[in-house]
Automatic annotation (TrEMBL):
Any one cellular-component term (Gene Ontology): nucleus
GO BP annotations, alphabetical order: methylation
Family label: Belongs to the methyltransferase superfamily. NTM1 family.
Coiled coil: none
Protein name: protein N-terminal methyltransferase
Signal peptide segment: none
The EC number(s) this enzyme carries: 2.1.1.244
Catalytic activity: N-terminal L-prolyl-L-prolyl-L-lysyl-[protein] + 2 S-adenosyl-L-methionine = N-terminal N,N-dimethyl-L-prolyl-L-prolyl-L-lysyl-[protein] + 2 S-adenosyl-L-homocysteine + 2 H(+); N-terminal L-alanyl-L-prolyl-L-lysyl-[protein] + 3 S-adenosyl-L-methionine = N-terminal N,N,N-trimethyl-L-alanyl-L-prolyl-L-lysyl-[protein] + 3 S-adenosyl-L-homocysteine + 3 H(+); N-terminal L-seryl-L-prolyl-L-lysyl-[protein] + 3 S-adenosyl-L-methionine = N-terminal N,N,N-trimethyl-L-seryl-L-prolyl-L-lysyl-[protein] + 3 S-adenosyl-L-homocysteine + 3 H(+)
Entries under Pfam families matching the protein: Methyltransf_PK
Amino acid sequence: MLGGYGSISSIDINGSKAFLHKFLGEGEGKTGTSCALDCGAGIGRITKRLLLPLFSTVDMVDVTQEFLDKAKTYLGEEGKRVGNYFCSGLQDFVPECGRYDVIWIQWVIGHLTDDHLVEFLRRCQKALRPNGLIIIKDNVSYEGVVPDEVDSSVCRDLEIVHSLAGRAGLRIVHEEQQMNFPKEIYQVHTLALR
């Protein structure tokens, strides 16, 4: 959700594409392009503009059925390559073992408690194909955990996100800050985890 910052969508997608391209293709440590999972997918902005152009099949998971229903229209013809529309909160979602080359988790971890996030990341790790990646792209606070009363979420600092990934048994393969976003919003970082 871009919450009034719809104009940054292209910057966001282009940054994500550049990040992903570092890992896709043939060769040592590279990730395949057969199937991706979009977590907290909403109506499918990331599925449509980032994942479907790069992967043969994309699965979507979101807690709101209404968004998933809208996605079927929003995605248009390319939506035929969406394998599954899962209506579930990530704290309850169990992705299929060994199915995904990339699991993309953007602007949704703030809705999970620390323990739910760790458990979800552990389940995601089991859902990866060989050389698969979990990618988290999210806002990070400057220090500690900052609650957002408006949408009942939290924003964690980078150190906390790192430690939760570590608790889940994941290592950070690569990390970048998204550039060219408005100065008044939180920094956004992208982490590739295995």
